[in-house]
Oligopeptide transport system permease protein
Amino acid sequence: MTDQSAASLVTGPAVGPEEPAPPTTGGKSQKPRGLWGDAWLDLRRRPLFIAASLIILVLLFIAAFPGVFTSVDPSWTNLAKSRQPPSAEAWFGYDNLGRDIFARAIYGTRASIAVGVLSTLLTVLFGGAVGIIAGFFGGWVDNLLSRFSEIFLGLPFVLGAIVILTTFNAEVAIPSATRIVAQVVLTIAVLSWPISMRIMRSAAISAKQQDYVKAARALGASAPRIILRHMLPNCLAPVLVYSTIALGGFIGAEATLSFLGIGLRDPVVSWGVMIAESRFYIQAAPHLLFFPAGFLVITVLAFVMLGDAVRDALDPKQK
């Protein structure tokens, strides 16, 4: 007699086909995790992700509430303290105009991160929208949008930024801080969106060949519904990885443009502006460069580390 027949003698005949019980956790059935659930579970085990996230959270808190860390006005000048080294009174010392470098580095976090976040949002939103449309429709639509993106992709970043920002700055002699930030954000986004467009296009071309898209088409779903409900959630992973890494790169790009004298400038306070102001005094007062450059390097490195961790968690080959 088999084990199953013996069990039937004790418990009675089976009413229906026997099904395996779902795994339980604490008395509740555990639902199968998707790509994002698996990625989040994997990310929480990565020290690289935890360290990068903590650094970014601290920087975001500094940008949102700079007054918690310093009560000094970053624009207050005292020429008698010009280029004084770090001390108990001023932890990072004073710059050429006698302004507190620590206060300026704290308040500069807001402008630098704002440029990076806004540039990334514009780049991903516009480039992603163009890319998923090109990948879904294909044909002449794909060719037209791809050729259009190559116009911007062929422009050298620094040269294109010089042309665009010089044209903007010629219109207003003394632009406001908001206008200066908007100019830099738009310039970075205009010159960077083709990369996110190509990433999204490749993901869309792959996704539209999947069975769930073919099934949606067979059921008569419209193109916008297929794109938004079926393709977009499955195309976000590579764009998310790119945006995380690009955010740090855009913060560095802002510093580069500011150092060249065409990016952010007074009255805006940013790490790039501070680095640009210190370039004539690096040998005499290296602390003018060291501290804002340190903030910049740590921030860019944190976003790059975060992007690497997210990429590894979302890559099936790493499983």
Notes: DSSP finds eleven helices and two strands in the chain.
